[in-house]
UniProtKB/TrEMBL annotation:
Its main location: secreted. Keywords: Secreted, Signal. GO terms for cellular component: extracellular region. The keyword Signal applies. This is Bifunctional inhibitor/plant lipid transfer protein/seed storage helical domain-containing protein. It holds the Pfam family Tryp_alpha_amyl. It comes from Paspalum notatum var. saurae. It comes from the Eukaryota.
Length: 158
């Protein structure tokens, strides 16, 4: 009996430590979706090429099926809970933390005759079943801001 009374505080302490670690991991998941953490620096370079080629045709980047496979592979390497943020960085770009010398990452290509809105529509749908078919933070294959919307626009189109 004496040994079980000494074991009880240890079990409670172990449970408390485990719960603290779980809470910290859950809290940090929302902040890890930045280039250099769960999202690679300058994310989805093959997707940038695929989006431009699919939205506006060609540009000599290579055959669409090969570009799509590379893009989907890069997107699959990003954790599901960060895929929408990776696509937002792809579309809008970001300046990562790091001081005044940090260079912008991501962003769509500036190509003559290839409007950014056309590229945005393609990029916004990359996780969909008819593209890469990858789960996102929603549990489905769509980002919360939907297809063809700006990443900061959560209203449905009418």
């Amino acid at each position: 009996m004496a040994s079980s009374s000494r074991l009880r505080p240890r079990l409670l302490l172990a449970a408390a430590v485990l719960l603290s670690a779980l809470a910290a991991a859950t809290a940090s998941a929302g902040t890890s979706c930045v280039p250099g953490l769960a999202i690679p620096h300058d994310p989805l370079p093959s997707c940038r090429l695929y989006v431009a080629a699919r939205a506006c045709g060609g540009f000599g980047f290579g055959p669409l099926p090969a570009l799509r496979r590379r893009c989907c592979g890069e997107l699959e390497d990003v954790p599901a809970y960060c895929r929408c943020e990776a696509l937002r960085v792809l579309m809008d770009g970001v300046v990562p933390p790091g001081g005044p010398g940090a260079r912008p990452e991501g962003g769509l290509l500036d190509l003559p005759g290839c409007p950014r809105e056309a590229q945005r529509r393609v990029a916004a749908g990359l996780t969909a079943d008819d593209a890469c078919g990858l789960a996102t933070i929603t549990g489905g294959t769509r980002c919360p801001w939907g297809f063809g919307h700006r990443a900061d626009d959560t209203k449905a189109e009418n």
